[in-house]
Amino acid sequence: MNHPGNDSSTTFLDPKTASKYLSEYETPDGLSAEEIMNLRANGGLTYNDFLILPGHIDFPPSEVCLESRITRNIVLKTPFMSSPMDTVTETDMAINMALLGGVGVIHHNCSSDEQAEMVRKVKKFENGFIPDPLCLTPNHTVADVHKIKAKFGYSGIPITANGRLYSMLLGIVTARDIQFHEDHTTLLKDVMTTDLVVAHEGVTLEEANQILRSSKRGKLPIVNSRGELVSLLSRSDLLKNLNFPLASKSLHSNQLLCAAAVGTHPDDRVRLQKLVDAGLDIVVLDSSQGDSIYQIEMIKHIKKTYGDTLEIIAGNIVTREQAASLIEAGADALRVGMGSGSICITQEGRPQGTAVYKISEFAQKFGIPVIADGGIQNVGHITKALALGASAVMMGGLLAGTAESPGDYFYHDGQRLKKYRGMGSIDAMERNCNFRDSSESAAARRYFSERDAVKVAQGVAGAVVDKGSIRKFVPYLISGLQHALQDIGVKSLIQLKNEVGSGKIRFELRTAAAQVEGGVHGLYS
Ligand code: IMP
Hints:
The protein has helices spanning 18-25, 33-37, 91-99, 112-124, 142-152, 175-178, 205-215, 235-240, 266-277, 293-306, 320-329, 352-363, 379-387, 426-429, 442-447, 470-488, 493-502, 512-518; strands at residues 50-52, 68-69, 75-76, 80-82, 103-106, 129-130, 157-160, 169-173, 199-200, 219-223, 229-234, 259-262, 282-285, 311-317, 333-336, 370-373, 392-395, 410-412, 415-421, 461-465, 507-509. By secondary structure, the chain is of the alpha/beta class. The protein folds into two domains: 63-126 and 247-513, Aldolase class I (TIM Barrel, Alpha-Beta Barrel), CATH 3.20.20; 142-233, Roll (CBS-domain), CATH 3.10.580. The longest helix has 19 residues, at 470-488. It is globular, with a radius of gyration of 26 Å. The chain binds inosinic acid. Residues 83, 85, 316, 337, 341-344, 373-376, 394-398, 422-425, 458-459 line the site of inosinic acid.
């Protein structure tokens, strides 16, 4: 066929045969995952070293299913996990990660009782109830309420005997009680409301809402049979009427799914028992180098003691040899990543793309999922980790600085920031040693052996900018990932894995110049 304007001697193929011609006579663009990962010269790839070529789109992003099996027996609706770090995952993060379809791993840089209490709060959480409301004692002052109002924006505060949850409820202080009170030194026992409307533990959200409506109060304290405060319901939350269709629930109950990290020392068995008593679903064995006799013995102990009621994520590892040891011992999932974390200052790791691919490719033969841990900076990295075979990504820095991460915001150079630190930083290792179960922090144990006379930091402490609430941020990640999968032309994570495995999805190396071209460039500001 000739096109107008072309030399009449040139003949063209029939445009209608383009696809057929391509598949019959041409080699496909790019490389398969196997080819790109086995290029001898590359010496290991990070997420930024390659890209995934786009495919054909014939469906909207909203149709993309992000369901993923993250351990042998647990499937999540979104493949997101938050790191067990004391500036990332405590109660609030774990609850909200589970509500949004992922799971939070509660850190263990605290006493075993504190960690078990956090697990208990996640398991007891019911949408609408505030599981750990801020409380004061009758001997606090009006000034203390004003401070809380200035910092957190609310002033409805339950007054308990010792100022904590699970202590006798004595009254409540609301904005109305202190509005016109000029003397800020007045004790709360002289202004608090003692004529209380309460509901009893076990009340359903619907019943509690009804009581709140008819009582016309702003807050409804929930108490147990001993009159101790166990949670709080707030009218303002009621109005938000939030619904979480993706929420991650336990296998055998309607409770939120909860994970927590422990070490591999003998006293970690006692800690784990407390976490299991609190309702734990998944235990993460938290070692910076997971292929050890200690971890293998811990896995065997857990399987013998708890059977299949507790899922074990073992790690961290970066080679197939390490994976083989842990799979053989009985791990239900593997946590992959050494040296890839944003706060990591050690060099013992392996480029994360290669580590995730090599281990996923091996572990999937045994039906063991892989969690890609560390180094996730954006939706592109999430997509690549999943394409290389990971079943979920674990994020620290990306979720730090959100409203749900532990710690207070502070300002520096006009920026609103929150602290984020490596668990191997000196800062984390020195935390709370005086009231822990052992003289050493969990962070110190993860990164050092007791025999180390001199501790060398393996992580740093710094700050990250305010990212708002994960209730907005995780949906943004979900939507970004759905768009990315649509671009690749796959409707689910399962299809993504299958087509990477068959070689249909293609990859390409990115030179340093290609990385610059792919980023924002050429702007004045
Ligand atoms: P990020 O998402 O890149 O910030 O990495 C988080 C991951 O880094 C965690 O899940 C841990 O596996 C790892 N990590 C946490 N603390 C340290 C540290 O102090 N040194 C090295 N790696 C760390």
